[in-house]
Design brief:
Blueprint lengths: L2 E6 L3 H11 L5 E7 L2 H11 L3 E5 L7 H8 L6 E6 L3 H9 L3 E4 L4 H14 L4 H17 L4 E6 L2 E6 L3 E7 L2 E6 L3 E4 L3 H7 L5 E5 L2 E4 L3 E6 L5 E5 L4 E4 L4 H4 L7
Parallel strand pairs: 1-2, 1-3, 3-4, 4-5
Antiparallel strand pairs: 6-7, 8-9, 8-12, 9-10, 11-12, 13-14, 14-15
Length: 251
């Protein structure tokens, strides 16, 4: 039985090498390639591959970001392709995650493919991926750029330019001083990647950049209104007061 394989790496030579080595695997059928996280997310949803070879370090949306975006439970069997340091490799080993360390040869790739093939279609992989995310997310540091896909364009919005983020279903409206961009991600997943010193959740559907806050106005109902320096007014609900004003006098 053939296993459908997706290759995800931002470097074309790396994808060509993977494809070339997998040609020696009689059970591997490469059904697609992606050069970015958003492109890979689309292909995972549309092609339903059995196995994905996933580069960890990609600009904008890393391999870890991709797993979080798609969801560990919806990911195919994953072989991480990495040039990470010893900390990350130790995490892969501890959680029994399949990986190949760049540069790799045909024998090492073949072993990783066999392990992924044994895991394909099982529920075990989701738990492994979730634990890998837990171990590696703190080491990755806060998000610095947000990937935006508009028609056939793919570009990045520096987090330093973001004024506010608003939930719109399974999308988030990313607002800068001069523009708005709709990204396919949940507010909760973005919040987990943002620097909590620079961004605060003020409502179940709103996150604001702390440095852009001009004032906080109390309301008669116990909530408050956050007034941004660009003139936006955002409701601050009582349940999020401590996140925005920890240890300080509440309005």
């Amino acid at each position: 039985m053939k296993l459908r394989v997706l290759l995800v790496d931002d470097e074309a030579p790396a994808r060509r090498r993977l494809r070339s080595l997998l040609a020696a695997e009689p059970r591997a059928e490469v059904v697609g390639e992606a050069a970015s996280g958003p492109e890979a997310a689309d292909l995972i949803r549309s092609l339903s591959p059995d196995v994905v070879f996933l580069d960890i370090r990609m600009p904008g949306m890393s391999g870890l970001d991709l797993v979080q975006e798609v969801g560990p439970e919806a990911m195919p069997a994953v072989v991480f392709v990495t040039a990470y340091d010893e900390f990350a490799v130790e995490a892969f080993d501890l959680e029994a995650a399949d990986y190949v360390l760049k540069p790799f040869g045909p024998e090492r790739l073949a072993r990783a493919f066999e392990r992924a093939a044994a895991r394909a279609g099982s529920r075990e992989g989701a738990a492994v991926l979730a634990r890998v995310l837990d171990r590696l997310r703190p080491a990755a540091g806060p998000l610095r750029r947000i990937v935006v896909r508009e028609s056939d364009r793919l570009f990045f919005v520096p987090v330093a330019e973001v004024v506010r983020l608003s939930a719109e279903g399974n999308y988030v409206m990313v607002r800068t001083r001069d523009a708005r961009h709709l990204v396919r991600e949940t507010l909760a997943s973005l919040e987990a990647k943002l620097d909590p010193q620079r961004f605060a959740r003020v409502h179940r559907s709103e996150i604001v950049a702390v440095d852009w806050i001009r004032e906080v106005r109390p309301t008669p109902h116990g909530d408050a209104t956050v007034v941004m320096r660009n003139g936006d007014e955002v409701r601050l609900s009582r349940r999020y007061l401590d996140r925005l004003l920890p240890g300080e006098a509440k309005p």
